[in-house]
Design a protein that fits this description.
By secondary structure, the chain is an alpha+beta fold. It folds into 2 domains: 15-287 and 488-547, FAD/NAD(P)-binding domain (3-Layer(bba) Sandwich); 292-484, Flavocytochrome C3, Chain A, domain 1, CATH 3.90.700.10. It has 15 helices and 21 strands. The strands form 5 sheets. Strands 1, 2, 8, 9, 10, 11, 20 and 21 form an 8-stranded mixed sheet that branches. Strands 12, 14, 15, 16, 17 and 18 form a 6-stranded mixed sheet that branches. The protein has a 3-stranded antiparallel sheet with strand order 3-7-4. Helix 1 runs parallel beside helix 5, helix 4 crosses helix 15 and helix 11 crosses helix 13. The radius of gyration is 24 Å and the shape is globular. The two termini are 16 Å apart.
Amino acid sequence: MTSTANERPPSSWDSETDVIVVGGGFAGLVAAATARGRGSEVIVLEAADEPGGIMRISSGEYWIPNNAYLREAGIEDPRADCLRMMARLSYPTRYDPESPTLGLQDRAFRQISTYYDVAAPAVAELTQIGAMGSVVSDGVTPDGVFNPMGHLEYHAELPENKIEYGRALMADTGGTHGPGQGQQTVDLLVAHGGRAGIDLRTGHVVNRAFANARGEVVGVEAQAGGAAKAIRARKGVIFTSGGFFHNAALRTLLLRGTVWGATAPYTNTGALMTIAEQLGALMENTDSCWWGEMGIEEVLDAQRSDNMAFWLYGDSMVLVNRYGQRVVNEKAHYNERGRIHSAYNASTKQYENNVLFQVYDAAVAGNPEMGVKYPVPFPGESGEHVITGGTWAELAANIDARLAKIAARTGGVKLDERFADRLTDTVTRFNSFAVSGHDDDFFRGDRQAEHGYSVMGLTRGVNRTMYPFASSGPYYAILIGAAGFDTNGGPGINENAQVVGPDQEPIGGFYAAGNCAGSPGHGAYWSGGATLGNALVWAYQAGAHAAGQPDRDAS
């Protein structure tokens, strides 16, 4: 395919190699290791002063269906069923289990099929070349019992999902699934790169790509130390440069509602978006993130946090809108829950869930258990973002006072005048559900995964995810907004991670993987480790395919 616009190569190059990888995060390091393992010379260009990207703060697991550990345990992960689950979650309005392509367009079906087929061999090859061994990510059952096959699948209840445990893997660093594992994984891959002769260059910002007369990508320009350096790629350029969250113009233009913060590093400014458009790429999934939630007041200025409200903490707890009404299953997992903030109200012409309120009682606030509670502070910790009130009316008044202080940042959000009365009704109704054990409105706790992923916390009552609120205060509230790990839209790719044009044909020498690409999962979170799983699979595909290409003429 010939691009519609491109930057022609310079008359001379400052350096050259077989494969250039733009971005030194998890996807970039995997792509580099794969290409190098197949005999190619590789240069990695990382914009930050150190490699790792978002992986540095990740808990470090990746979702690998039909992996060796499942097979060794005698657990079958049928391909047809796994693809059905992936298709159902990624394209719910198109999903047709009787269709040869499950109702998906051809490229989308090839993408999810390739994921299943390639994920386990990719992990095996990374082990074989000495880049990164893998083990089952540690976990517990919903009842808190250690399970050698890891944690429960997020969508274990779906009939298409035949596997409850064992698809989530992590690097064999000697660590555990949790803080620190991501950084250890980065260290492992960087050390391998040093041994393998991968040229890792930090502080190199790429904002320009070069294409030859046939529209094939043959190099990039990198800004480093105040100088522009032209670097040639004989076989291909693989972009793994992260999403565009920290590009305010793109974020405002493309994302619906307000996404308050992200865990993505500040270098994730979407440079590939402009480059890909100039090269004639098909752009897709650009209104999407890997979703979650954050405490709004903590990210108002920084727009970045290492924290994410993975699972809203507490049993005597609800999430309500400015009318005092529940809008979502509070124990749904983060990617599903985060989407509710972008719901548009046709009557008020507003994104009414832009700001929500996590409301809980003193038992939740004072529970001394350690664990994942963010944004609820531990007892004794500073909680300036926490709003309190002795009664529902007092809590409502104090929430409104807090909203008034940040009104210029929220579009003037304030509580409806009936908030306190409706919140009282909401809590009364919720309490009845907690007593019966069944949530008639949002089915909280009906799914097995919600019990394990609601955070152990207080385990009172019929349904461990719910317990009646105390009949008297104090009560507490935190302003909650949509957040993301990063955006996951950009140039569309095929099953080889080649960037494609509107005609679905690949642009020669041009690859993308990780959050800079249009997500092959269409934004669906198949289970824990889906983000890193996508990064690994498509980076592996890009590295393997690029390494197998003939040298391209740079003219």
